[in-house]
């Protein structure tokens, strides 16, 4: 025999019709006292909008009415009806979470336990009313938990669809206002820096891949938005990815969630409004990374400028001009001439010095100056390749008159 039937058998007939009517007449006052106690004990309750506080009062009144109905005829159902939370406005869940709801129910239950015995005609009725209040409060809490679980499931599906729209909008470069509105609805800090990371999606089903990315992001305390588009996984991570040892590990951590193959990170931009720039460069790098067989994983799109330029990426060409060709040109002919001669000499310092009719120390000084100007060391094989392509792009731009 269930607990509900046991309670009915124990207390059936213990409450007189007169007492039930007294409880019914007092139900409105009980609800009002409950809400007043909530405002007194919970500082955040008073800060809620008036319409939300009114919704809580309405819920309390409905539950009080349900309690009266159940007291009047406990045989009508094995379980009392507690539909108020199921029918509560959806906006209410944005102001109070499940923990807050438990506190509200506990306060209301305290008020009912204090006030109901005053309406009883004798000790037997006082005991019956006290036990009924506790039992009904338990059912209300259970129903509230079910309502929150259902709302969370629905909200999760909605968030996933909205997140997919945001990521797709970032890739396509949608209108800024619409993108920011959707990102804000997902709880993204619009002032937070953002970095796009792209690569092959893992072989697992998309929901599993998404869950893995979120788990890794949670471990490093970073917000992410992501989407699986065909065979590609696109992740936008919030916060800096350079400047400290911890920031430098962000890309390495998230790269582990991608499938086999290269992973490319775009530049870190100041906010989600500029995330399209980071994503566009990351995708350009993903198309070009095959040209650098020894590329690290993950690799930054800025480190793939030569390969991107060779695929026809006009933005990569512009960056090579700005970072390589123009600084060398503005430094004077000797620096650019020395770098070109050094590269033509296969990186042999003495051969370069002989070709220029200068001392080897002069070559060393000019190469050091070139490194300071461009951030690329001609003595490093990879940097030498970047310098060679950058200078070639600059010469082509000058010949076309597009410098």
Automatic annotation (TrEMBL):
It holds the Pfam family HTH_30. InterPro entries: CdaR-like_regulators, CdaR_GGDEF, PucR_C-HTH_dom, PucR_C-HTH_sf. Residues 173-288 form the CdaR GGDEF-like domain. Residues 337-392 form the PucR C-terminal helix-turn-helix domain. Belongs to the CdaR family. This is PucR family transcriptional regulator. It comes from Haloechinothrix salitolerans.
């Amino acid at each position: 025999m269930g607990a509900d039937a046991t309670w009915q058998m124990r207390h059936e007939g213990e409450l007189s019709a007169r007492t039930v009517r007294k409880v019914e007449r007092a139900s409105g006052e009980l609800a009002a006292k409950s809400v007043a106690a909530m405002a007194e004990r919970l500082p955040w309750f008073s800060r809620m909008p008036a319409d939300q506080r009114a919704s809580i009062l309405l819920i309390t009144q409905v539950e009080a009415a349900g309690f009266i109905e159940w007291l009047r005829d406990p045989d009508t159902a094995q379980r009392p009806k507690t539909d108020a939370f199921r029918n509560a406005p959806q906006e209410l869940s944005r102001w109070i979470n499940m923990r807050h709801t438990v506190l509200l129910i506990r306060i209301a239950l305290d008020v009912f336990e204090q006030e109901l015995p005053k309406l009883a005609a004798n000790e037997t009725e006082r005991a019956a009313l006290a036990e009924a209040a506790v039992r009904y409060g338990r059912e209300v809490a259970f129903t509230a938990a079910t309502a929150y679980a259902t709302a969370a499931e629905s909200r999760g599906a909605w968030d996933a669809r909205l997140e997919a729209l945001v990521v797709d909008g970032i890739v396509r470069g949608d209108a800024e206002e619409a993108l920011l509105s959707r990102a804000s609805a997902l709880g993204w800090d619009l002032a937070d820096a953002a970095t796009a990371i792209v690569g092959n999606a893992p072989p697992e089903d998309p929901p599993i891949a998404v869950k893995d990315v979120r788990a890794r992001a949670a471990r490093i305390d970073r917000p992410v938005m992501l989407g699986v588009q065909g065979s590609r996984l696109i992740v936008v991570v919030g916060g800096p990815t350079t400047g400290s040892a911890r920031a430098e590990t962000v890309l390495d951590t998230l790269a582990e969630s991608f499938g086999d193959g290269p992973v490319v990170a775009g530049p870190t931009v100041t906010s989600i409004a500029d995330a399209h720039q980071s994503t566009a460069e990351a995708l350009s790098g993903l198309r070009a990374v095959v040209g650098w067989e020894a590329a690290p994983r993950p690799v930054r799109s800025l480190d793939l400028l030569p390969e991107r330029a060779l695929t026809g990426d006009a933005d990569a060409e512009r960056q090579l001009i700005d970072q390589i060709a123009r600084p060398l040109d503005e430094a004077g002919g000797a620096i650019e001439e020395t770098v070109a001669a050094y590269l033509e000499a296969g990186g042999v310092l003495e051969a370069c010095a002989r070709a220029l009719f200068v001392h080897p120390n002069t070559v060393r000084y000019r190469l050091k100056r070139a490194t300071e100007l461009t951030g690329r060391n001609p003595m490093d094989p990879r940097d030498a390749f970047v310098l060679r392509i950058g200078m070639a792009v600059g010469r082509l731009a000058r010949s076309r008159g597009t410098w």
